Amino acid sequence: MKRILTIQDISCVGKCSLTVALPIISAQGIEACILPTALLSTHTGFKNFTFRDLTDEFDAITQVWHKEGISFDGIYTGFLGSFRQLELIERVFAEFDSGSLLRLVDPCMGDNGKLYHGFDEKFIAKMRELCTKAHVITPNITEASFMCEKSFLSEGYGEDYILELLEGLAGFGVQKIVLKGIRYRQNECGIIAYDAKTKEKVEYFHEYLPFHASGTGDIFASVLFGSLINGESMQNAIKKAANFVLESIKITLKDNNRTSYGVQFEKLLKNF
Length: 272
Known about the structure:
With about 270 residues, the chain is of the alpha/beta class. Helices cover about 35% and strands about 25% of the residues. The protein has 8 helices and 11 strands. The protein has a 9-stranded mixed beta sheet, with helices on both faces. It has a two-stranded antiparallel sheet with strand order 6-7. The longest helix has 20 residues, at about 235-255. It is globular, with a radius of gyration of 18 Å. The model has no long low-confidence stretch (mean pLDDT about 95).
């Protein structure tokens, strides 16, 4: 059985980060291990929440793993809340790299043209550096535009703008980019995966649903990463991940009692 490590925060209530990564990766027949970056009472979409930073636990945890001879087939990072965590994760990548370690970074920093609260230019620069240590990154257009220092466009753009972002990310050393949330047309949304070495692009577009909920990006990255760990092609992986998110949203929209906790992905886990 493949074993992976996912590094991100965990919310006791709310469907995002580790709360979705663990069940989705496990459902794909992969052993999922965690290095939690923070503990929250609820995800930040709630009005009230507690937050405890766990950065100081990193070294003690990884030292035990080394003593026990624990290894991983892949490492996947999600939301990271501090500059110091970015530095420590670079070290984790290096320490557990056996030569075949698949590294995926989801550079969670913002959406809709704005950075999340607490992030700044210094954090963007360090995230850009971490992305160069990954095999695959999964930014949305907001995150890509900030890392490339390009203007953010929410609509009215064409293929030239997207190619500019992809080539910009490739230009500072990223190997494979999976760019999310591409909308050339109002009723359509898609993903383009770009290989910096071969210049090959694969894409998948599907219907657009005007619905926002916390955790959909985490769900996408978790399905994508699990698919790649299981040896699937990038084309199949982006299609599977996008469809899983889309179907999760559709199921959620049918429930009149739905909450802001996130989408009801649990009903689709049996399909893996």
